[in-house]
Each structure stands twice: as structure tokens, then as C-alpha cells.
Write a structure and sequence with these properties.
heterodimer; A: mainly alpha; 8 helices; 84% helix; B: mainly alpha; 78% helix; globular; transmembrane helix (chain A); heme transmembrane transporter activity (chain A); transmembrane (chain A)
Chain lengths: 222, 234
């Protein structure tokens, strides 16, 4: 536990020292939202909930892929080797997933607030707690699955393309469920309607987390 | 000895001959829209079944590679994935033909079609990942990891997608399953053997390809070592 905490602290410090990367991601999501806003050339509150929702999650997906892709590239291989002599690989992947989850939450929070600012919120009775909870589940799932894929892609050359190609099909089930639940939240449907989907989301999160922790020890050795 | 080892190939040939014969000439129940195209059940459905079986086998060999580290397991794993892709493409082709006859659209928005498309994307990504490594051991290890991960995500996808949109396929979204009333026992007598036969054929293709791969590897080794022998002699 102590080690994981130290590792997470290290991730934060690393990010803070390379602030341009963090700022780059923040700018990335803001400008993507703005590009979408201009592309639709709409006044506020003109998108149907369905388009609004799908667009939001696609923006988040691309941001997530870009943000998490760097989680292994950022450190030199010599330093990674040094960590591996000190601690078990499970702790490294867990700390990276926790850090990436927090990062995703920050990015999603910023993205959501800016998105609603320019695009407006469709519909009246939006179920905010459900939407935020869904965002949280999404952040965990994205972080867990994309961290492992980032690890895989970082081992190959041309990792940027590879990262996208490898991660799209893998995050798709997660993404579909997230879109579904957040649509329910937007429409303000009764929560019992989305219980089934939330259960599936939790199950996917657990599967992806367990697999990442199980498979990572094999990954770092190469 | 050869019969003992290769009986399953004979079995595959016998079963597939039977399936093709009875499938094309046997009597089938008359259904309003399906008409004679119902015979496609014998070919299209088993292709999917055996594709999933081949993918599963590919994943099992990937796990085995990670545990034991023998390159042979990696060869088998990738060839099973290749055969699964072949079956997937054939399944798409037969399904598309069938859909344009019965549903009037070669690619209707159907969860089963979409989940298969995503599955194909995963395995194409797997092949691209493999090609991006030069080092053999590294390639084997990392692609095995992706193989396991992809299959584990593919399974929930098959369960999730049908809930999002109603399927045109029998047995989903209020459509009656084949088993309910239009699949009589005579058809089952062809369908189930066909699943076994297709899977055996898939295994056979895989076995041949694994052998070709091994031979090519050995040839590469020989070609590599010959010039070196010359240079030391000089």
C-alpha cells in the first residue's frame, strides 16, 4: 500500500515537471470541443440528446487515448528497469491505473464543463448524479484497459498508430455501455432502467482491471 | 499408425461430404421468406461456431505460451487466429448473401454482424501488432498478451451488443429461435455434424499452416548459417 502511494506520488511529480504534456492535454480537449461546436455551426441547445451524447463520448475517447498513450513513453527505459528491480510489476500497473483514472476524471470534468458551456445541455430533467457516476466508471474502465494497451504499444515502433488501432476494438464494449447509461441519465429516466447496464459496466471494469494486473507482469519482462 | 493419428481428418471429410450432400439435396421445411435459402443454415451458422472455437483455442495457446515460453505455442496460436479470421470472412460472405436474399440488405444494422465486425477488427489489430516487431520472442510474448486481452473483451461484447438494438437473427429481439418451430430434427442432424466438421477442417488448415511456418523457420536458419560457414572457412 505504502509503495503504491509512493508510486502514485511519483506519477504526479513526473506530470508536474513535464507540465507541457498536461497543458497539452487540457488544450487538446478544449480545442476538440470547440472544433465540434464550430463544425456543427449551431446555436446552443440545438443538438438532439443522442448526437450530443455520442459526440461527447467520442471526444472523451480520443482524449483518453491520447492522454494515456504517453504513460509508458514518458519514462526512459532505464528508469523503468530500475523500478522493476525495486517493486513488483503489479504495484506499478496499479499505481499507473489509479493515476490515469484520476487524470481521466480531471480531463472528463473539464471536458464536460466546457462542453456544456458551449453546447448547452439537451433536455430538462438530467440525472446529474447518475451522469457523474457513469463518468467515474468510464474513467476507471478507460484507464484500466488503455494503460495495458499503452504498455503493449510502447514496446513497438510507430506506437501512436498502434495505440489507436489496438485500443478502439478493446474499449468499444465499454464505450457502448457508457453511451447507453449517459443517454438514460440525459433523458432523466428512472434509475432502475439503467441498473442492468451499470451492472454490465462494473463487470467490464472488473474484467479489464483483473486482466491488466494479471498480464502486466508478462509485459514488462520483455 | 497413420489411421490412428489421422482419423479425425477422415472424419472431417466424411462429415463435410455428408453435410454438403444432404445440405444441398435433402428436404428442408418450407418457410415463408427463407424458402430454399434455409439451406444456408448448414454452412453459415457452423462457420460462426467454429470461428469462436478457433479464437478460443488461439487464446488458450497464447496463455500456454506465456506460461511455458515455447515458441511453438506462439506459432499455433497465430495460425489459429488466422484460420479464425478466414472463417470470419467466409461467415460474413455467406451471411451477407443470405441477408440480401431474405432481409433485402447485405449489411443490416444487426448486433451479431456488428460484434463480428469488431471481432475482426481486434484480430486484424493483432496481426498488425505482430508485424511491428522484429524480435521473435518479443513479438510472441506481446502479441500473446494482446490476444488474451482481446478475446476477454470480445466475450462481453457478444452479450452486450444484442441488448442495444434488436436483432434480425432468430432467437433475438422477439424473433423466435430456430429451435422453436422451424428447425426440425432432420435439420439438426445436419447442423450439428456441420459444426464439428467445420471445426475439424479449421484445425486441419491450422495444422498445415503451422507446419509450413515451421519449415520456413528451419529454412531461414539454414540460409542464415550457410554464408557464415563460408566466411569462417575462408
Amino acid at each position: 500500500m505504502q509503495q503504491i502511494r509512493v508510486l502514485i506520488g511519483k506519477e504526479f511529480r513526473l506530470e508536474w515537471r513535464q507540465r507541457y504534456a498536461l497543458n497539452g492535454m487540457l488544450l487538446y480537449i478544449v480545442s476538440t470541443v470547440f472544433v465540434c461546436f464550430l463544425s456543427f455551426s449551431l446555436r446552443r441547445n440545438q443538438l438532439t440528446p443522442m448526437v450530443w451524447n455520442a459526440l461527447f463520448w467520442i471526444i472523451l475517447l480520443f482524449t483518453a487515448i491520447n492522454a494515456i498513450a504517453k504513460s509508458f513513453v514518458q519514462e526512459r527505459s532505464g528508469r523503468l528497469l530500475y523500478y522493476y528491480t525495486l517493486i513488483s510489476p503489479q504495484k506499478i500497473i496499479i499505481s499507473k491505473i489509479v493515476y490515469n483514472t484520476l487524470l481521466m476524471l480531471v480531463l472528463a470534468g473539464l471536458g464536460f464543463s466546457f462542453y456544456t458551456l458551449v453546447m448547452g445541455v439537451p433536455g430538462e430533467g438530467m440525472d446529474m448524479p447518475l451522469f457523474v457516476g457513469n463518468l467515474l466508471l468510464g474513467a476507471i474502465g478507460f484507464a484500466a484497459s488503455l494503460t495495458l494497451v499503452a504498455g503493449i504499444a510502447s514496446k513497438a515502433e510507430n506506437s501512436a498508430t498502434l495505440m489507436a488501432v489496438l485500443s478502439f476494438p478493446v474499449v468499444l464494449p465499454l464505450l457502448l455501455m457508457l453511451i447507453r447509461v449517459s443517454k438514460n441519465a440525459l433523458d432523466g429516466l428512472d434509475r432502475s432502467v439503467s441498473l442492468d447496464e451499470i451492472g454490465t459496466l462494473l463487470a467490464i471494469d472488473v474484467i479489464v482491471l483483473a486482466l491488466s494486473v494479471m498480464l502486466f507482469p508478462y509485459l514488462w519482462r520483455s | 499408425m497413420t489411421m490412428k493419428k489421422n482419423w479425425w481428418k477422415a472424419l472431417a471429410v466424411v462429415i463435410m461430404t455428408y453435410v454438403i450432400w444432404v445440405g444441398l439435396l435433402g428436404t428442408v421445411p418450407r418457410q415463408p421468406i427463407l424458402n430454399e435459402s434455409i439451406r444456408n443454415v448448414y454452412f453459415h451458422v457452423p462457420l460462426w461456431f467454429s470461428m469462436v472455437i478457433l479464437m478460443l483455442t488461439s487464446m488458450i495457446f497464447a496463455i500456454r505460451y506465456l506460461r511455458k515460453g515455447q515458441l511453438n505455442d506462439d506459432h499455433i496460436s497465430v495460425e489459429f487466429a488466422n484460420t479464425a479470421i478466414l472463417f470470419g470472412i467466409l461467415g460474413c460472405a455467406t451471411g451477407s448473401l443470405w441477408a440480401s436474399v431474405t432481409w433485402g440488405d447485405p449489411w443490416p444494422n444487426d448486433p451479431k454482424l456488428n460484434s463480428v465486425a469488431v471481432g475482426m477488427l481486434m484480430y486484424f489489430a493483432y496481426l498488425i501488432l505482430r508485424n511491428s516487431f522484429d524480435d521473435e520472442l518479443r513479438r510472441a510474448r506481446i502479441s500473446a498478451i494482446y490476444n488474451i486481452f482481446a478475446f476477454a473483451v470480445f466475450v462481453p461484447l457478444i452479450f452486450i451488443l444484442p441488448r442495444l438494438t434488436d436483432s434480425l437473427h432468430p432467437g433475438n429481439g422477439g424473433n423466435p429461435a430456430f429451435g422453436k418451430y422451424d428447425m426440425d430434427n432432420a435439420m439438426r442432424l445436419v447442423l450439428y455434424p456441420s459444426v464439428i466438421g467445420m471445426t475439424l477442417i479449421g484445425v486441419w488448415i491450422t495444422q498445415l499452416r503451422v507446419r509450413v511456418r515451421r519449415l520456413r523457420d528451419r529454412l531461414d536458419h539454414v540460409n542464415d548459417s550457410v554464408p557464415r560457414a563460408h566466411s569462417t572457412a575462408e
